[in-house]
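Marked as duplicate of an earlier ticket. Keeping the data here for the record.
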Amino acid sequence: MKYFVTAISILLLAAIAWLIFFSGIVLNREQKEMNNTQSTGETIVVMETTLGLVEITLNQTSAPQTSANFEKLVRQGFYNGLTFHRIIPGFVVQGGDPKGDGTGGPGYTIPAEIKLQHKRGAVAAARLGDQVNPTRASSGSQFYIAFQDLPMLDGQYTVFGQVVTGMDVVDQMAAVKTDAADKPLEPVIINKAYIK
């Protein structure tokens, strides 16, 4: 009986040691995966528009505050149902205004994080002009997507993302008929925006 109890005790101790060792391996693996995800500094936002899907990678390394704000608004459903209220072929398509006329937003601005260039498909924060906004603070929600490289905007606006899928959908927006104020005659809507 004494040997039986000893054998059971040894087996239980071995099982406990194995569980501790195994859980350490699993935790270590999960920590490494989490670190790898964080080190890329990228979050992908999917926008389901009336013309198709557009996927945007946020650059959390170069524009951490702007990216975090955009992600927060996406998670809150802020962009769902909003329109692209300004389309200028060969230049930009702009959206993210709850009023739909270029004057709206969430009621705050984001400090400028001007580092990245305006390449084709660049996603940047809109803002008020230098006369009333000398610090070049970004709009809290309005953004635009560049139809082509726009070096004349470099150093003036915060670029915080890049279209990685769906640039063909963005190009379709350039063909939408607009009025004299560059507002689409038939709304181009962000039906839903979410994190991939």
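See parent ticket for discussion. The radius of gyration is 24 Å.
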